[in-house]
Amino acid sequence: MNNGVTIQTQKLSKTFGHVHAVRNLTLEVHQGTRFGFLGPNGAGKTTTVRILSGLMQQSSGTARVCGLPLDSKRNKIKAVTGLLPETPGLYSKLSAVEFLEFIGALNDRNGDSLHNRIDRLLALLGLESRQDDLLESYSSGMKQKVLIASTLLHEPELVFLDEPTARLDPSASVIVKELIEILAQATGTTFFICTHQTSFAEDVCDQIGIINEGQLVASGSVQDLISATKVKNLEEAYLQIVGGKVDREALLTWR
Predict the structure, then answer these.
(1) Number of Cβ atoms within 10 Å of the Cβ of 30
(2) pLDDT over 70, % of the chain
(3) Would you give the distance in Å from CA 127 to the centre of its chain?
(4) How far apart, in whole angstroms, are the C-alpha atoms of residue 184 and residue 194?
(5) CA neighbor of 78 nearest in space, from 160, 146, 10, 8
(6) Is 221 helix (H, G, I), strand (E, B) or coil?
(7) Which one of 15, 19, 178, 228 has the minimum C-beta count within 10 Å?
(8) Based on the structure, what is the number of domains in the chain?
(9) Domain range holding 65?
(10) What is the DSSP secondary-structure string of 47-91?
(11) Where is mean pLDDT largest: 11-15, 169-173, 182-186, 250-254?
């Protein structure tokens, strides 16, 4: 770890042909932070996560993740981080325990230490009574719990969550919010959470970065952003920063 800084980037950029997905991203995320990375669809959130998790090479700029240089230590970064993508795979014909054993084997974990970790996570998630049931019988919220557990199985220092409440109903979304808070407190893990849902970010995150068209346009605590924009909540601050405010008078007069 580098002076308690889990993620540090300098002018990190990614281009796809003429498209600038990420532009000169300079960012710091400190250890133990629940960092919310907000932005509209296509803003560059997922591309940033893929770069920082070692899955994609940047076009320019530098970064250190968990104290490791991104350019030369991608495999090590993959080993000390966890990633839950927006559309993860799940083997529904396995039980929760079997799925987590499989994920553990992929991360070179086995034996008593793996099973103790599985038991602890399932108990923490309230799934111990269903741990031997097939995942196909689980609700969306329960499946998401198992997927989040799979990202924590190898005790990562940093967990990337890409739209963790996408396609979940409101009650399942509440479960995920509570889960992140509990796990952050219980394990001291740093969470980097990509989302476009401001209410989720306001409830869960202690630091926020807002990205728009590949550029970091604002960062700070939730209260910092609300105070700077002189509005009532994070949603209004976000809309003021990235645009998109609805013209209510025009809607009322529209026929």
Answers:
(1) 16
(2) 94
(3) 22
(4) 16
(5) 160
(6) coil
(7) 19
(8) 1
(9) 5-253
(10) HHHHHHTTSS--SEEEEEETTEETTT-HHHHHHHEEEE-SS----
(11) 11-15
CA distance 139 to 137: 7
What's 42's domain CATH number? Answer: 3.40.50.300
176 in Cβ contact with 141 (< 8 Å): yes
If DSSP codes are grouped into helix, strand and coil, which group holds residue 160?
strand
CA gap 112, 10 in Å, rounded: 41
Q: How many residues does the chain have?
A: 255
Distance in angstroms (rounded) separating the CA atoms of residues 214 and 212: 5
Contact between 168 and 176 under an 8 Å Cβ cutoff? The reply is yes
CA proximity to 234, closest of 203, 212, 255 = 203
Measure the CA–CA gap between 73 and 56, rounded to whole angstroms.
Answer: 13
Reading the block at residue 31, the tokens are: 């250890």
- Taking a C-beta distance cutoff of 8 angstroms, is the pair 191, 184 a contact? yes
- Position 147 pLDDT exceeds 80: yes
Instruction: Please count the other Cβ atoms lying within 10 Å of the Cβ belonging to residue 212.
Output: 19
**What was the pLDDT predicted at 251?**
37
Residue 88's pLDDT band (cuts 50, 70, 90): confident
